[in-house]
Amino acid sequence: MTSMRYRLARMTGRDPGEQHRASTPLELLFDLAFVVAFGQAADQLAHAIAFGHTASGIVAFVFAIFGTCWAWINFSWFASAYDTDDWFYRVTTLVQLTGVVIFALGIPAFFASLEEGGAVDNSVLLAGYIIMRVALIVQWIRAATQDPDRRRTALGYAFYVGIAQLGWVLVSLLHLTPVPFFTVTAGIFVLEFIGPMLAERKTTSGTPWNAHHIAERYGLLAIIAFGEGIFGTVAAVTVLVDEQGWTPEAVLVVVAGVGLTFGLWWTYFTIPSGDVLAKYRNRQYLWGYGHIPIYGAIAAMGGGLHVAAYVVEGHAEVGVTGAILAVAIPVFVFSLALFTLYTFLVRAFDPFHIGLFAGTVLVLVVAVWLAAAGASIGLCLVILTLSPAVVVVGYETVGYRHREAALTKLLSD
Predict the structure, then answer these.
(1) Which among 400, 381, 396, 399 is positioned nearest to 256, based on CA atoms?
(2) pLDDT score, position 4
(3) Any idea which of 124-128, 158-162, 324-328, 406-410 has the lowest mean pLDDT?
(4) Which of 62, 78, 66 shows the shortest CA–CA distance to 26?
(5) What is the pLDDT of residues 16-53, one digit of tens each?
(6) Distance between alpha carbon 317 and the CA centroid of its chain, in Å?
(7) C-alpha distances in angstroms, 239 versus 38, 244, 256, 321?
(8) Which member of 1, 99, 150, 186 has the greatest number of CB atoms within 10 A?
(9) What span, in angstroms and rounded, lies between the C-alpha atoms of 341 and 271?
């Protein structure tokens, strides 16, 4: 019988080749906190676009998404390598989870301060972020103490994360206006990004993360983000039903919102991440970082559907064209990021993908053109749904053969 006590265990690292490694209940609980963060960022973006603060809204959204994704990425890679699931590990994860919630609570004030143009109100947002990162530093120090073979790497992580947090503390105390704020934070984000590379640059094997486990973790966060698309659909349809009842327009929005979310989900899971990372572990950085625009685009798409709800209510300063652009642009970014990520991962350029991408863009352009010509929101959203359908149909009829051939060649080299 397996013991149900979570006594301290030595943190020596998991087996990177462990078979059938799956996400733990604790990891899934941690992911749920990011539903709130994605939702807050998407809601605030929708409000900013609908009421004429598009530029500040986009800037704030990008910053919030980077902070959200970066905190999740760091936790997930550490957990893949060092998850002991003892009481100390659970408590430090609880601290990080609390930090996520505080970070999410600070997002509205951050957006509002950028709209007003005064000092950036980042106190709550950065407090949550720093709480998450300090707990991670504690975990890295524990790994350095108990895993002597990787002590230098673990201490490197703790050092670079710690230096970055000192920078964030300084930023939170200075009450900077937008230009100096983003100038300083750009430098800190660079340190955050290169820290893992610097920490592992002189080690032979790196931290013992599991390729298939980390691929599953990223896929699960994508599903979390896709939930924002469903929520945006519900928000838009609720407004339609309240205003007009169950009209054909409301039905079209339901079909479009669910279909668009489902289509993007289908295309995301065509990437053979786990198999490739298992053999080529040095592709971890660009693959891992390359997901940030994908997650951001998914959340922004949900925000775009919220904009459609504002337009239907008649409270928005943008019209139908603005609402469709608010959905079409994130779908474009998602598609571009996904094709780029696939090309980098398999290290093979496939001309067939150019055709699929061009078809996707063409559908997006047609939807925006119809909106500008006076078509309804429901019809335009249904047209947008066909954009991921181009990739799905192309993959299921021809593309899967290209994928199999590229993967066979890659894994046999």
Answers:
(1) 381
(2) 53
(3) 406-410
(4) 78
(5) 888 888 899 999 999 988 888 999 999 999 999 999 89
(6) 28
(7) 21, 8, 15, 18
(8) 150
(9) 8
Q: Kindly state the average pLDDT of the residues 197-219.
A: 84
Q: Are 353 and 391 in contact (CB under 8 A)?
A: no
Outline where DSSP puts E strands in 121-218: none
Residues 6+ apart with CB under 8 A from 13: 81, 82, 143, 147, 149, 150, 207, 208
Instruction: State the CB neighbour count (10 A cutoff) for residue 344.
Output: 14
């603005």: which residue's tokens?
322
Beta strands in 85-218 (DSSP E): none
Residue 1: what pLDDT?
A: 39
Q: How far apart are CA 163 and CA 180, in angstroms?
A: 19
d(CA 261, CA 259): 5
With a threshold of 0.70, does the pTM exceed it?
yes
Residue-wise pLDDT tens digits, 339-348: 999 999 988 8
Q: Determine contact, residues 212/22, Cβ cutoff 8 Å.
A: no
* Nearest by Cα to 32 from 81, 115, 104, 89: 104
Give the residue-averaged pLDDT of 196-206: 73
Alpha carbons 217 and 70: distance in angstroms, whole number: 14
Do 151 and 172 form a contact (C-beta atoms < 8 A)?
no
Give buried/exposed letters for 194-215 (b at 16+ CB in 10 A, else e): ebbeebbeeeeebbbbbbbbbb
- Least Cα distance to 208 among 14, 11, 12 occurs for 14
Structure tokens at 196: 């893992």
Give the span between the Cα atoms of 303 and 297, in whole angstroms: 10
Residue 72 token pair:
């999740």
Tokens of 148: 């002597």
Residue with tokens 């066979």: 408
Q: Please identify which residue in the block is written with the tokens 């609390």.
A: 98
Alpha carbon 301 to its chain centroid, in Å, reads 12
Q: How far apart are CA 356 and CA 353, in angstroms?
A: 5
Using CB atoms within 10 A of its CB, is residue 296 exposed (0-12), middle (13-18) or buried (19+)?
buried
Contact 57, 45 (CB under 8 A): yes
